[in-house]
Amino acid sequence: MNIAVIFGGISTERNVSIAGGKAVIEALRAKGHNVIAVDPALGKNYKDSENFTLNASVFNTLDELKQMDTRNYIEAINSEAFDNIDIAFIVLHGKNGEDGLIQSLLELRGIHYTGSGVRSCAVAIDKAMSKNLFAAAGLLTPPWMHVHINEIDDDNNISKEIKRELGNQVVIKPNYQGSSIGISIIKDGDIDKIHQGLILASQYSNSIIVEKFIKGREITVGILGAEALPVIEIIPQENYYDYEHKYTKGHTKYECPADIPEDIAEFAQSMSIICNNVIGASGFSRVDFRLTDEGEPYLLEINTIPGFTATSLVPMAANQIGIEFPELCEKIIDLALKK
Predict the structure, then answer these.
(1) Residue 158: inside a domain, yes or no?
(2) Catalytic one among 13, 39, 98, 211?
(3) Residue 294: active-site member
(4) For this structure, is 46 an active site residue?
(5) Are 95 and 121 in contact (CB under 8 A)?
(6) How distant, in Å, are the alpha carbons of 136, 223, 267, 283, 306 from that of 277?
(7) Catalytic residue status for 13
(8) Cα 137 to Cα 276: distance, rounded to the nearest angstrom
(9) Are residues 132 and 259 in the same domain?
(10) Is there a catalytic annotation at residue 286?
């Protein structure tokens, strides 16, 4: 099969995407497929896509990303790289890749691609929109506020409102961002810290989600097709599961399957499938939760293109039920071709 693996791109998760793309390319070539590597950030120079050295534990700064031109995406997708391929395997994360943009360009060229469609990707990356859908479907999600950048003021009015509505312990997140970049966790209700958290998040998104902090354990559930994979517990060495802990070897411990009661694991899996269906995701995804000491799983978000190296969470869970990484890549392709 002729397969274009699309990775890299223009987002703060570029390095993670490159690591995942290289893993998928290696796996598919080992299975005998003809694979073309395409980094859409390179435009017509996509043939240089495999000539990268990188450190996935370091994310690209906003200043670095400003040097890249998103118009290169159009050149890349319109290039001869896609003239004779059977499918595109997308390993892009965050903005300009997991938000429906690259999916739109591929659809305009009539090219099959892995994962969710344009609408589902756009909804999932919009945390405010997806949380409204979760709540409408009766799924338990932390209480939240949606803050626009224009509401941030020097008098801290919005910060004071956040404290009144959500309490002293809150999590502040960019609305359109992944890999825990731009996140702040405030545990003492300090108004100035809340304000600084809003300022940090606003660097990555013009709208911001502020959630009530849920004390407990972090678990995640991968979805493959219509099936929920084994639950994984994420145990960072310290603090919380930030970018450094996600992508620096040895900084986080993973329990797969998670050491939790079977009924709670099954409940989290069923919630994940409902979440997947509410968003309209397809192919594969990953749903993240906070699990309280009382055994309540609070749904945080869904990732339509989760991290995808051989040691990432969805491949880890698939491996637990006997699906090795190269086979997983082929299964995702098969699911896409059947859409």
Answers:
(1) yes
(2) 13
(3) no
(4) no
(5) no
(6) 13, 11, 15, 11, 17
(7) yes
(8) 11
(9) yes
(10) yes
